[in-house]
Amino acid sequence: MSAQYRNAVGVSVMHINIVGAGPSGLYFAYLMKKTWPAWRIRVFEQNAHDDTFGFGVVLSGRALSFLSDADSSIVDRLLTHMQTWSDQHIILNGKRVVIDGSSFSAISRLVLLEQLQNICMAAGVEIEYRRRISDPARLSDCDVLVAADGANSAVRDAFPQQFGTEIIDLKNYFAWYGVKKPYPAHTLTFLSRPDGAFCGHHYRYTPAMSTFVAEVDAQTWTSSGLADMSEDQRRTFSEDVFHATIDDGAFIDNRSIWRRYRIVKNKTWHHRNIVLIGDALRTAHPSIGSGTRLAIEDSIALWRAFQAEGSDIFATFKRFQSEREPVRDKLNRAAELSIAWYESMAGKLQMHPLDFTYDYMLRTGVMTQERLIRDCPHFMAQFVAHAGA
Ligand SMILES: Cc1cc2nc3c(=O)[nH]c(=O)nc-3n(C[C@H](O)[C@H](O)[C@H](O)COP(=O)(O)OP(=O)(O)OC[C@H]3O[C@@H](n4cnc5c(N)ncnc54)[C@H](O)[C@@H]3O)c2cc1C
Predict the structure, then answer these.
(1) Ligand 1 probe mutation, 50, 263, 279, 297, most atoms within 8 A of CB
(2) What pTM does this model have?
(3) Is the CB of 148 under 6 A from ligand 1?
(4) Which regions of the chain does DSSP assign to beta strands (E)?
(5) Which residue numbers in the chain have pLDDT < 50?
(6) Which domains are delineated in the chain?
């Protein structure tokens, strides 16, 4: 049953329910309430307000400018909590290559959520914590139901045929840890050992803390014995593998479970009055940009579609999919190439570090040699000198 009604001056007033208070649900809620203060915007979240997983999330310079276009005040708030850097480092078997010319920031996921919660509350969004929605029918007293409930979305999974959901488990295994060491830049550490190929993606998100994502290919998962270990043993083993990178320190656990990346795709992004955003809609491989950034961009795209179409929700959903899908498709193609690169990393770990880094930079087809020369002149000068030697 639709809850849409007209207020005293005959303007449509909508009631929007959002499942999930992650970055996509909260930012969408905020933008909608700010634009249409009379609309009722409610968010339902299974966890408490300060429960979170993961450590720091990365936002590229481009992601920040997207956020700023939608609302510059949020970027000002976030910047005071962010760590920023302009180089990327690749360390192959102990040899470091510096790639200049990028612009990235990272922030603690908990702080990001706190900031988003604060702006939502100030705008008048209603948020109910500790309220798990298992059956979307229980929230049908609204005009629009937004599924922002993450990669394992219960709302989406209630209609797999209607959304045309496809779930693909990738081959590599990974776990997300924290580490008490502030790395100077976004760094990828690759190690070739007798028991396999290992990769660590690490970046600081506070002056003292970094996120550390450890990754192995399918062959290494078995050959190193990781497959047969408990989670505690896997953490200790990973500390040993990366001991030089973490200064013989310890990995901090926060639901840090080794798993395979799961790619979620949906053919149709809406069904009846339900629309999918963020990880519920599509997950992204972190190697081509953070899921957080993509989730927030989805919220902005759906909000813009509402701005263009008003309370005609079917026109809004159609516009959202037709305008956002080409961008997501382009990223998906880049992600597929990046995934293939990581799945075959073992065969590349004997390359010269500069050749390896060049190969890495061009892996998705998005970066070209011309762009590298323009954007990363310092790295390219070294590469050209090495290639010509
Ligand atoms: C273990 C892990 C660690 C990660 N760490 C990082 C990181 O460090 N950096 C990074 O950039 N990205 C990280 N990611 C990816 C990133 O979290 C997501 O891509 C991004 O948060 C997507 O935002 P979202 O709002 O769509 O979904 P989520 O952030 O997943 O938010 C979904 C919300 O919905 C709630 N929810 C789920 N089901 C229900 C339900 N049935 N009823 C009510 N509430 C529900 C969840 O509790 C959650 O709060 C991590 C992902 C995982 C799985």
Answers:
(1) 279
(2) 0.90
(3) yes
(4) 5-6, 12-13, 15-19, 40-44, 56-60, 83-85, 88-92, 95-99, 104-108, 126-128, 144-147, 165-179, 186-193, 196-204, 210-216, 251-252, 259-266, 270-271, 274-276
(5) 1-2, 6-11
(6) 5-53+72-80+108-168+263-341 (3.50.50.60), 169-260+347-388 (3.30.9.20)
